[in-house]
Amino acid sequence: MISVDHGHSICDAPGCSHNRWHPLIEPALRIAAGDTVEIETRDSLDGQIRPAMKAGEMADVVLDRAHVLTGPVFVEGAEPGDLLVVEIMEIVTPDYGFTALFPGLGLLQDRYPGPFLLHWELGKGFATCADLPGIRIPAAPFMGVMGLAPSLARLRAVNRREADIAGRALVLPPEPRFAVPSEPAIAGEAWRTVAAHESGGNMDVRQLVAGSTLYLPVEVPGALFSVGDAHFAQGDGESCGTAIETSATITARFGLLKGEAARRNQHSPSYRCAATETPGIGSAGWFATTGLPIDAGGAVSPIDSTLAARNAAAAMVDALVIERGLTPEQAYCLFSVAGDLRISSIVNTPHALVSALLPQSIFQP
User: What's the confidence (pLDDT) of residue 283?
Assistant: First the structure.
């Protein structure tokens, strides 16, 4: 088992936690293939959001401390070219979670920049929020971040390719401030944990609940698996930038498929999952809005699924405000934790079409 100290920030007492990706981070645990391990994790923001906190206090939250991960786990015998098999057996969460809007984060950040904060009570298979009476979000806990350390060659190649697009897209380059570990040789070039990469990372795949299996291509000896960013529930897309964020304890069994990443030419994660991660979620049907890639001025951005997704999500927020009496920020957060963005059409040029779906079972009679 790997335990964490929830009473201290990782900046003060890192223990078995870190918030960067680098192959030189020392393992927290060594195991054999076939071993089952119980791993405690902190919440993604290192406990900075507290149950009694007000939105006005969010200015003190340091986003550079995210995401806090537990590990790495060194798997004996794992070598580059193998696939690490992670069988997710159980994920247990505490009784508190939060959803937040931060400036600069989220699909509709220009419309709803925040700060905004919802506090959730977790228990008996559901999340409830005092600010959203009559709404219950069913439990479907998963780990937003699971991944392996990249090779040094991969790490440096990705840093170069992301530097090349820095003027055209938001990328977060290596940042030594608040980095754990803080050693200059690591912090000066380590990946931040906001993006997913070829070796996994912040994938936010909500289908990876207990009973699922994740396959990760190994790039360094020992694989060096780390995990964190637990979510009690999330919709596909995590539209506002956060889900129902919480800490968790994950139990997983680790296996190896020797040489299979090389044989399959697999350079990114794959997974197997159940038919549904939330049984019964669609029992009362779904309400959906749609979006096309048309901007506010009426111009088309051909086959632009991101713009179509923005328009579908914005239409859902507007519908929830009108039909359910929510504030826009409440509606935006609710869709992020319970609604799904799905590409309905990506070939009918010039218009991609994205659907935003919300299960009606979350609304209590």
Answer: 83
pLDDT of residue 245: 98
Q: What pLDDT shows up at residue 277?
A: 73
Alpha carbon separation from 37 to 171, 201, 235, 248 (Å, rounded): 34, 19, 28, 14
Distance of alpha carbon 330 from alpha carbon 129, whole angstroms? 11
Return the structure tokens found at 316: 């859902």
116-123/126-128 β-pairing: antiparallel
Q: How far apart are CA 173 and CA 109, in angstroms?
A: 21
Domains of the chain, first to last: 17-272 (2.60.120.580), 286-362 (3.10.28.20)
Question: Which DSSP string do the residues of 138-187 spell out, in sequence order?
Answer: EP--EEEEEEEPPPHHHHHHHHHHHHHTTTTS-------TT-SS--HHHH
Contact by Cβ (8 Å): 244, 99: yes
Give the helix ranges, DSSP H, for the chain.
152-164, 184-187, 260-264, 305-324, 328-338
Mapped onto helix, strand or coil, the DSSP state of residue 236 is coil
Flag residues of the chain having pLDDT under 50: none
